[in-house]
């Protein structure tokens, strides 16, 4: 049975997402304390893949995941899923709100319940944990008084109870998760795919604008752009781009080759079916057919076949 790592311990949103991402086959899910360790297990071959949180509709990207994706040996995403995110606030049985002096969770969870905490636990000191379930385990162990956790956590930590359920400052928040593995041929194109890359650009006038133009010119819809310092030099940034299309699509392959020429470093982070399965709208001039026809036309010219 394939072993698949996830950001644990048991009871995280990432566990829920990883179960959804591996629903089609039997897998043994292995919790890891942070994303870096989960990806290290992928890189070493200890597991075949890992489920990791990547971005949230309220709080944006998960920086630990961005950094872990581009450090060390290459890894690629092969699938994504999106989960709605609402939280439970868990306490040891009998704890009353006025007795809660510390509350812990993953930074992304805390960011999404700040308003609720101010209104309901205004005196509680906030602590960050490696994951929502790590916070629940710490409450069980008496380290903190309350945890902001995923709805599945109360089943995994039966010695805790809900102080409040369905907590979220912003209704309809979603988090996107990726299933990541060692490089292998990407999944077949579906017509509704996403491609992720990380590119380091040189510190010259207009480089970012030119990079983006390479996508625009080919009708490629950008769904995310995020920068993180390369950590090598002050002012040097790596841009994480997610855009519609599959590396097997001519327009995407063409754009990737252009990025490779323009950037000092480009890391391909995968082409995989979009969770919403929504096909992207492409003008006829950027269709596969148009790209292939124009390539044939050029080949003909080069071979002296001019009609
Ligand atoms: O800690 C978790 O449960 C995670 O999976 C990370 C996370 C945190 C907050 C919202 C979504 C995912």
Automatic annotation (TrEMBL):
- CDD domains under this entry? ACT_CM-PDT, PBP2_Aa-PDT_like
Offer a single GO CC term for the protein: cytoplasm
Pathway assignment reads: Amino-acid biosynthesis; L-phenylalanine biosynthesis; phenylpyruvate from prephenate: step 1/1
Reaction catalysed?
Answer: prephenate + H(+) = 3-phenylpyruvate + CO2 + H2O
Domain of life of the source: Bacteria
Instruction: Give the enzyme's EC designation.
Output: 4.2.1.51
Q: What single Pfam family name could you report for this chain, choosing any that match? A: PDT
Q: For this UniProt entry, which residues form the secretion signal?
A: none
Q: Known PROSITE patterns for this protein?
A: ACT, PREPHENATE_DEHYDR_2, PREPHENATE_DEHYDR_3
Which Gene Ontology molecular-function terms are recorded?
A: prephenate dehydratase activity
- UniProt xrefs under SUPFAM superfamilies: ACT-like, Periplasmic binding protein-like II
Which keywords has UniProt assigned to this entry?
Amino-acid biosynthesis, Aromatic amino acid biosynthesis, Lyase, Phenylalanine biosynthesis
- InterPro entries, A to Z: ACT-like_dom_sf (IPR045865), ACT_dom (IPR002912), Chor_mutase/pphenate_deHydtase (IPR008242), Preph_deHydtase (IPR001086), Preph_deHydtase_CS (IPR018528)
Give the GO terms filed under biological process for this record: L-phenylalanine biosynthetic process
Class in the EC hierarchy, top level: lyase
- Could you tell me which NCBIfam families the record lists for this protein? PRK11898.1
Q: How is this protein named in the record?
A: Prephenate dehydratase
Q: Which organism is it from?
A: Saccharopolyspora erythraea (strain ATCC 11635 / DSM 40517 / JCM 4748 / NBRC 13426 / NCIMB 8594 / NRRL 2338)
Source species taxonomy:
Bacteria, Bacillati, Actinomycetota, Actinomycetes, Pseudonocardiales
